[in-house]
Amino acid sequence: MQSSTTTGEPPEPDEIAAMFDGSSDMSDAFNDGQVHLAYWYDDEDQASLVEASQRLTRKVADSLRLREGERVLDVGCGLGAPAIQLAAEYGVEVTGINISTRQVAEAHARAREAGLTDRVTFLRDDYNSLAFPDSSFDAVVAMESLVYTSDLVPALRGLHRVLRPGGRLSLTETTREGLGVVAASRFAAAFGAKWLLSVDDWLDTLRETGFELVEYLQCGPRVFGMAPKYVQAVEARRAELADRFGKAAVDELRQTLEHFFTPGARQIGYAVITVNKPSH
Question: Can you tell me the distance from the alpha carbon of 59 to that of 270, in angstroms, rounded to the nearest whole number?
Answer without folding.
Answer: 13
